[in-house]
């Protein structure tokens, strides 16, 4: 019997690594295609030569290095963080319908950044300050929701419900601020909706330190997160500080969300779809789920941005009537994620009957 279990465990671990390697390969291919295909078409060979600085075409090197590469790197980093944040929330709350946008993390980040962009002194109102402002907003919101929720047998269910209500209230406040200050509406709209348009090396330099710090730190809590999937009494019996670990993971999810939101805006549903599909591939053990969810969500976001670039629209705001831009990636993820959420909701309700 022990041998059978060991063989099953070995097969599962091999399956996880195979999935991880395949996703890494798919992401690499998508990155190359994302850079190659656009208004100026390139072959994968030309992209690789430009990336290695072996291309004789200066214009092509400029397009690759200064326009397309930073955008796809920002998309990858944001996807990694949003996917990991979604997986953390789904594990901590034991609810596959949860994502950063539904527990107040994204809304808090957006509200604080909008307040900062509208009212902060000009000398401090720079892009490099946005991650810290978003981080403060996300952490304050999630911490407030956590402590307002209290603790009890139905704490996790109440926490998700409290998050949904708080998100609705915060989004209403944000909308009122934007309507009151319509002069800044055109500059904030695409960012508030979730967009990778115009992302350059400055944005990459903002996001990569957060990505490099928060992802390994969150992974260190994967084994403790696994114990949170058990009943609280069982976790306490195994020596886990349940409430402290839950709060720590919630704050890490808020920090991951804040870092992503500060450079790409409020991209909806990507943190729901990625973790859920990743769980179908490797199971719900956080040790395997966390990295797979991060990588799979990065694949989804890069692919969504690639699709979004093929659709253009005109902005109807004052002073920007003739401004043409590609479709915000947030629109693509919402179109993709909303039906998926409704499907999961229906599936969950059917199981409870």
């Amino acid at each position: 019997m022990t041998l059978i279990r060991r063989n099953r465990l070995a097969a599962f671990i091999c399956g996880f690594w195979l999935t991880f390697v395949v996703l890494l390969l798919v992401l690499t291919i998508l990155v190359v295609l994302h850079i190659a295909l656009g208004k100026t078409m390139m072959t994968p060979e030309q992209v690789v030569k430009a990336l290695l600085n072996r291309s004789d075409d200066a214009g092509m090197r400029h397009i690759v290095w200064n326009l397309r590469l930073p955008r796809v790197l920002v998309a990858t980093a944001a996807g990694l963080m949003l996917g990991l944040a979604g997986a953390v929330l789904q594990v901590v709350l034991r609810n596959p319908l949860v994502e950063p946008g539904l527990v107040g993390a994204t809304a808090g980040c957006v509200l604080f950044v909008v307040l900062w962009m509208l009212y902060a002194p000009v000398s401090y109102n720079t892009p490099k300050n946005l991650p810290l402002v978003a981080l403060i907003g996300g952490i304050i919101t999630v911490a407030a929701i956590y402590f307002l929720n209290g603790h009890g047998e139905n704490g996790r269910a109440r926490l998700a419900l409290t998050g949904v209500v708080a998100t609705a209230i915060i989004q209403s406040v944000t909308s009122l601020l934007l309507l009151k200050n319509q002069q800044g509406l055109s500059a904030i709209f695409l960012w508030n909706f979730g967009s990778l348009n115009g992302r350059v090396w400055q944005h990459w330099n903002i996001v990569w330190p957060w990505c490099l710090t928060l992802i390994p730190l969150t992974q260190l809590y994967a084994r403790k997160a696994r114990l949170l999937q058990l009943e609280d009494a069982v976790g306490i019996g195994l020596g886990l500080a349940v409430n402290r670990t839950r709060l720590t993971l919630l704050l890490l999810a808020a920090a991951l969300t804040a870092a992503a939101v500060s450079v790409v805006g409020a991209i909806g549903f990507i943190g729901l779809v990625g973790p859920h599909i990743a769980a179908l591939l490797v199971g719900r053990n956080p040790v395997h789920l966390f990295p797979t969810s991060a990588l799979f969500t990065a694949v989804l976001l890069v692919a969504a941005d690639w699709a979004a670039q093929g659709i253009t629209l005109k902005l109807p705001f004052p002073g920007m009537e003739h401004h043409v831009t590609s479709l915000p990636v947030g629109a693509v993820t919402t179109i993709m994620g909303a039906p998926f959420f409704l499907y999961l909701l229906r599936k969950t309700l059917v199981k409870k009957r």
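The chain has a mean pLDDT of 82. The chain is about 75% helix and 0% strand.
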